[in-house]
Amino acid sequence: MKRIILNGSGYCAVTEDGRLMEYIPEDPADQSGVILLGKIGRLMPGLNCAFVDIGRKKNGFLPLDEESGTFSGGKIRSGETLLLQVKKEETGEKGAFLTRDITLPGKFVILMPMNRYIGVSNRITDEDTRVRLKRIGNSAAGGKFGLVLRNAASGAKEDEILEEAGMLSEAWDTICEKAQQGGRPGKTFRMNDPLTRLMEDYASGGFELRTDAGDTEPEIARQLKQAGEHTIRLPGGGNIVIDRCEAMTVIDVNTSSFAGSGSKDQTVLRTNLDACGTIAQQVRLRNLGGIILIDFIDMDDETDRSLVLGKLAECFAPDRIKTVIHGWTRLGLIEMTRKRTGKENRQEK
């Protein structure tokens, strides 16, 4: 059972069958997803970006050309003030990464007021459902904005989808009206509430919401402590070691004191399969993003390698953050990428 917990101590958490999978502390400095005013400063054509004053000590970075081919914004001019969205929160010496291609997420749809793309979540694989939802999306947008139909839309009625798209469109109109009144750089027009975000992202699978989690507090604290540990023990006796680097995260799997019976190959396979669930938990709990390399214990049998790859994909399937498992590299590592969202959870002392 998936459970979303809102705690009065200042955090949201997600548990799956009692296992802590996400922990989002209340952090006023974390503004990923927030829509605000930004004043364009120096343009850097060689780096395809502009420095933007967003009311912080560090300037934000805005691409001169957005990646989306369906983005409808014009050219950026130095000195102008624009509505922008924080796409990635600032990390280290890097300022926040910004976008003009703003998104307003709902339960069934994601509205893109500066875009005209109509798409359907990749998690929806039934072709008839995809065709139906795309038709609804085109009808709702009417060429005025873009829409992505989320996984939860597959079980929704057409009028529910149309109603939500209309509400999000009205919310955008209100934001634009307020922005026209002006304000200092950094003026915020829409926050990114963690609880609302969790409820929208997990709507399709169902969940239980708890706002008084006093009885689960000790268990959450125990599991959260692991998010600060370098080495995590596996139930069967093996372990995984997690190392963060500047450009990526490396996870190493070891047999350690694995106590299973059987041949060496069976022991290796069981340890690697055992590690998949723990790796998925720790990646989600620590909110690791970017490139992730996993060094499983060497396996010679292709069937065993396929089993581990499949198990890893299965364990990451519930992740609400976009994750792509690219497969085995020539060096025998599994390479995967996970979209960066907000700050990583770093519990280290």
Verbal overview:
Among the domains are: 79 residues, no CATH class; 111 residues, Aminopeptidase, CATH 3.40.630. 27% of the residues lie in helices and 29% in strands. It is built from six helices and 20 strands. The longest helix is centred in the C-terminal third of the chain and has 23 residues.
Describe the protein's topology.
Elements: E1 2-7, E2 11-16, E3 19-25, E4 35-44, E5 49-53, E6 60-63, E7 81-88, E8 97-99, E9 104-105, E10 109-112, E11 118-120, H1 127-141, E12 146-149, H2 158-179, E13 188-190, H3 194-201, E14 208-210, H4 217-226, E15 231-233, E16 239-244, E17 248-254, H5 264-286, E18 290-295, H6 302-316, E19 323-328, E20 334-338
Parallel strand pairs: 1-14, 11-12, 17-18
Antiparallel strand pairs: 1-2, 2-3, 4-5, 4-7, 4-13, 5-6, 7-8, 9-10, 10-12, 15-16, 16-17, 18-20, 19-20
Helix pairs in contact: 1-2, 5-6
Task: Summarize it.
The chain is an alpha+beta fold and 349 residues long. It has six helices and 20 strands. Among the domains are: 104-182, no CATH class; 228-338, Aminopeptidase (3-Layer(aba) Sandwich).
